[in-house]
Amino acid sequence: MKKERLFYLDFVRAIATISIVITHFNARYLYLNPPMPQKAVITTTVANIYIGGWGVSLFFIISGAALMYVYQEKCELKTFYKKRFLNIYPMFWIAYIAAFTYMFYVNKVAPGGEAPKINLIFSILGFDGLLAGNIPTFYILGEWFLGAIILMYLLFPIIRKGILEKPAVTWGIILVIYAWLILGYHYNFNVDKIIFIRMPEILFGMQFVKQNRKFDIREVVVATIILILNTICKPTWSSALQTSYVGIASFIVLVYLSYFLKNKLAVVLCGIVSKYSYAIFLVHHVIIAHMMATFDLNKITHLQSYELFISVFIVICIFAKILYEVHANIMQVVAKVIQKD
Length: 341
Fold this sequence. Notes:
One of its GO terms (cellular component) is plasma membrane. The protein is mainly alpha-helical. Helices cover 72% and strands 1% of the residues.
């Protein structure tokens, strides 16, 4: 039996999706020489953390919540992993092949041509973005988040069992690992990209759904105060730690707001963005890079930056829709072939 869609998850997912697009659009101004953050659209930070980290934190919380909502009662491993595989890889491979072909045609050289050919396996598996900062890869699209979310899916059945059967022990183990990563980690790999640093966010989302939380206004007030204080005080301690509690506090506030903002139009719009969120995630980076490269960002005004953002976002939506439909049609053909055999 198909479960009813939860509007608050669609609402937060839509906000997180748009925030990631804004992140990579604004990044083009932040990497100019000299940087021009004054031309960024909306903002580059939320409650003293980078807007990209904020959006990713919301995605991890949503992912934990959504998986727990669907699989709380039963999680048959073969069915679970098959569905995760089909939800991630075919669309990723289609988008990767299209982007690789386009970039090869435009640049007259294969992307990542200096990387050892054997490292193409990381692109096939969706881990090229996660590993790109440490080894040469053929990374084009998908970001490090894709590799991290794949690891989350691999671990989810174990985490689910722990949350359902021994929640205190599970939280204890995760928080010990988290504390070590915050306080004692010194290896040459970005700590923000390690899946265990995101586990408190994931577990919070799972616990939120498991408890079928009814909002206590006091929780919302506390969460709001945390966001305000972090914005005003601008603490300099661990950005990973700030991302965790700012993300969780933001989720609480956004879910609370979703109850007041829910109407037919909001349900439709958030549902559409949620439906195409993965396709948007896959295509947005390449489109932003190539569209913004055709403009002299040093000369455009702040107003023109907003006009450019709207244009870029429209193109992203068009290509996300195309990717989604191409993927759906290919999967239908594959399903028919399998059925015949």
